[in-house]
């Protein structure tokens, strides 16, 4: 059943401020992560979505709580926008036992299955078939839920994307394929990696709509996502939604940014999706003033600080119960000759 | 260039200087590309970016975009293109950014590249090299840290190489590029920054010959990849405790230099087989079987022992990751235990 049309996120005070809170939370969470990383307190690697907050926020705000998402290596924003709690999220990144994945996943594999986040993925394109499968389950189980797949522009050059898109099309699955086109797959620009001009037009090959929106405008993303979700829920099948955006930071911690110019980065920083929405609220949303947005900023700052503090204080992930989360079959072990395993088991 | 270095790795080569493992790979690529116009490097971010691990460095500036080819994120496509290009006249070196992403390209590697020479009755060759960093230790978790060598070594038609030193990274890669058949070169991401003596010339290290970087009398450690260095370090510590250990670096998993391994195991009568990969159905299971089905079994003073990664995916948390993969302490403990048997 199609849902009633929804007003823009900036249309009313409560929704507008809640949306702003999500945008700022993603931004501040990642700034905190960046800082912890730089100070050597966080391990592994990080892919920050700073500059891309509007796509996660706009899409997830078009979803119901029980809808599903599959995320990417750049997945902090998706996780937060889908309703994750900051403490277990930060705890996961800090390799704590209380983290969402008990320290096994880290940033690149952050998941929150209880809120329908089936997980970030270290494999480019790896989540697209999973989202399509999740949509198949909703269709067969008649739950009325939809699934969203987040992926980057680079992922649309993988076979996994194309095969999954075709399955979604022929089975008319309740899935929305959301491409966050930030113009680069690591160092390779879309101008060089594809011979078509937009990601959206790739949908034509599979026979479903492809829609391109300003991915730094959370209202625009939300409107397009709302329509795509409604189509999906109504049994009309998939939509490919291309959100045109930009990542301010390098691909990961080791990126020297040799493949793009400072000017280009500056141009996009001027299109900041967070402050842009903030301005829109103050200028156009009834009942929202400067003091309201300042209060949101303060609240988010405190929440993120508090999450870091709580996560830091949590117990570390413990090697003693490393084997606790695996299917029984892999425990097959002969006895006797592996000194180290006995050492660990002891 | 036909200079060949055999037996132990580059130690002793007169013109050796110190390079990192990554620099050694780059030097091999540069020399091979300069020697033979048909050689090209292809992969994700190998161009201006210089490679995710910095391996290709300045090659793009030296050889240009036709020889150092950036590809989209399309592993199956560009590995397959490497297979076809190799069959039809080029000598592609295809880089997979992390060995885990060979999964995307497995059809082209296993069903195509490995079998073409055989299935065409010898009428065609696939002189392609597939380079891929494997292994754990960087906190990159389950999908970026695997040791998949057993998959490749189990596939007839693929040669599989795991260089453990900078000199071998260069010498084995040069041999792989010369080879008429597909060679999978599994580099280790923790080794890229490790340095060692590397000959300046394009000295080949032959495929299929193990190295014996250390000899001792009490036990023989047989290792692959990053574990070779850990075994050498352990052997050094064991020497202080009165245990003297040999270390064999397998270097080439396929073809496997069984004679060297058997000879070294016979010499001490005790075998400790060390790999980073999980134990179950791993490469060291094959080594163990080779020992016990040969006459070396009669020389054993103790059962063959294996020290392997746990049979789990690689976790993210550093303390978990360390616990999953053998560390120097673990090698020492296992060696002491083994040396006390028999
Ligand atoms: C199958 C696979 N190939 C390569 C990589 C290495 N890698 C990780 S992220 C990335 C770029 C992805 O680009 P895109 O899909 O556009 O997403 P973005 O990083 O821009 O968000 C690459 C090449 C990977 N993780 N998985």
TrEMBL record, chain A:
Alphabetical GO biological process terms: pyruvate decarboxylation to acetyl-CoA
GO MF annotations, alphabetized: magnesium ion binding; pyruvate dehydrogenase (acetyl-transferring) activity
UniProt-listed Gene3D superfamilies: 3.40.50.970
Protein keywords: Oxidoreductase, Thiamine pyrophosphate
Cofactor(s) this protein requires: thiamine diphosphate
Domain Dehydrogenase E1 component: 23-319
Pfam families cross-referenced by the UniProt entry: E1_dh (PF00676)
Protein name: Thiamine pyrophosphate-dependent dehydrogenase E1 component subunit alpha
Annotated source species: Vallicoccus soli
Taxon lineage: Bacteria, Bacillati, Actinomycetota, Actinomycetes, Motilibacterales
């Amino acid at each position: 059943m199609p849902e009633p049309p929804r007003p823009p996120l900036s249309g009313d005070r409560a929704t507008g401020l809640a949306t702003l809170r999500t945008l700022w939370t993603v931004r501040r969470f990642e700034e905190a992560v960046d800082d912890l990383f730089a100070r050597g307190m966080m391990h592994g690697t990080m892919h920050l979505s700073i500059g891309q907050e509007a796509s996660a926020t706009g899409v997830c705000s078009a979803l119901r709580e029980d809808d599903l998402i599959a995320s990417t290596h750049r997945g902090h924003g998706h996780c937060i926008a889908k309703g994750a709690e900051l403490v277990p999220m930060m705890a996961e990144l800090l390799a704590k036992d209380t983290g969402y994945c008990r320290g096994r996943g880290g940033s690149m594999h952050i998941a929150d299955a209880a809120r329908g986040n089936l997980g970030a993925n270290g494999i480019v394109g790896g989540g697209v078939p999973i989202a399509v499968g999740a949509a198949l389950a909703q269709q067969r189980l008649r739950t009325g839920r939809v699934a969203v797949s987040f992926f980057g522009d680079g992922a649309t050059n993988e076979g996994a994307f194309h095969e999954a898109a075709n399955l979604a099309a022929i089975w008319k699955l309740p899935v929305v394929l959301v491409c966050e086109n930030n113009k680069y797959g690591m160092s390779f620009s879309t101008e060089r990696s594809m011979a078509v001009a937009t990601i959206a037009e790739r949908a034509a090959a599979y026979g479903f709509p492809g829609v391109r929106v300003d991915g730094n405008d959370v209202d625009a993303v939300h409107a397009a996502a709302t329509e795509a979700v409604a189509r999906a829920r109504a049994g009309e099948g998939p939509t490919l939604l291309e959100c045109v955006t930009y990542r301010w930071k390098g691909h990961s911690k080791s990126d020297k940014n040799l493949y793009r110019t400072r000017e280009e980065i500056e141009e996009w920083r001027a299109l900041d999706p967070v402050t842009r929405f903030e301005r829109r609220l103050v200028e156009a949303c009834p009942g929202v003033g400067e003091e309201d947005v300042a209060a949101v900023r303060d609240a988010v700052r405190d929440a993120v600080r508090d999450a870091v503090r709580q996560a830091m204080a949590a117990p570390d992930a413990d090697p003693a119960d490393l084997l606790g989360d695996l299917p029984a079959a892999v425990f097959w072990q002969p006895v006797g000759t592996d000194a180290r395993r006995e050492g660990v088991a002891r | 260039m036909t200079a060949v270095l055999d037996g132990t790795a580059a130690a002793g080569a007169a013109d050796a200087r110190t390079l990192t493992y990554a620099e050694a790979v780059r030097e091999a690529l540069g020399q091979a590309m300069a020697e033979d116009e048909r050689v090209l490097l292809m992969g994700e971010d190998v161009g201006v970016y210089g490679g995710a691990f910095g391996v290709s460095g300045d090659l793009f500036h030296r050889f240009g975009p036709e020889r150092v080819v950036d590809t989209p994120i399309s592993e199956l496509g560009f590995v397959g293109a490497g297979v076809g290009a190799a069959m039809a006249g080029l000598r592609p070196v295809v880089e997979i950014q992390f060995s885990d992403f060979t999964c995307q390209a497995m059809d082209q590697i296993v069903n195509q590249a490995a079998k073409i020479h055989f299935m065409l009755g010898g009428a065609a060759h696939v002189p392609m090299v597939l380079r891929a960093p494997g292994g754990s230790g960087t906190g990159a978790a389950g999908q970026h840290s695997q040791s998949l060598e057993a998959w490749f070594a189990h596939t007839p038609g693929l040669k599989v190489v795991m260089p453990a030193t900078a000199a071998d990274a260069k010498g084995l890669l040069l041999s792989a590029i010369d080879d008429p058949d597909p060679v999978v070169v599994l580099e280790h991401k923790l080794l890229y920054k490790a340095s060692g003596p590397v000959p300046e010339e394009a000295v080949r290290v032959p495929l299929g010959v193990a190295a014996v970087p250390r000899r001792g009398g009490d036990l023989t450690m047989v290792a692959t990849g990053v574990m070779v260095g850990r075994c050498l370090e352990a052997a050094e510590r064991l020497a202080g405790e009165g245990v003297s250990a040999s270390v064999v670096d397998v270097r080439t998993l396929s073809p496997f230099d069984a004679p060297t391994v058997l000879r070294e195991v016979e010499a001490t009568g005790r075998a400790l087989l060390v790999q980073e990969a999980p134990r179950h159905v791993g490469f060291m299971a094959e080594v163990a079987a080779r020992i016990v089905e040969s006459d070396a079994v009669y020389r054993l003073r103790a059962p063959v022992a294996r020290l392997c990664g746990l049979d789990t995916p690689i976790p993210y948390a550093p303390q978990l990751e360390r616990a999953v993969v053998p560390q120097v302490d673990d090698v020492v403990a296992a060696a002491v235990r083994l040396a006390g048997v028999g």
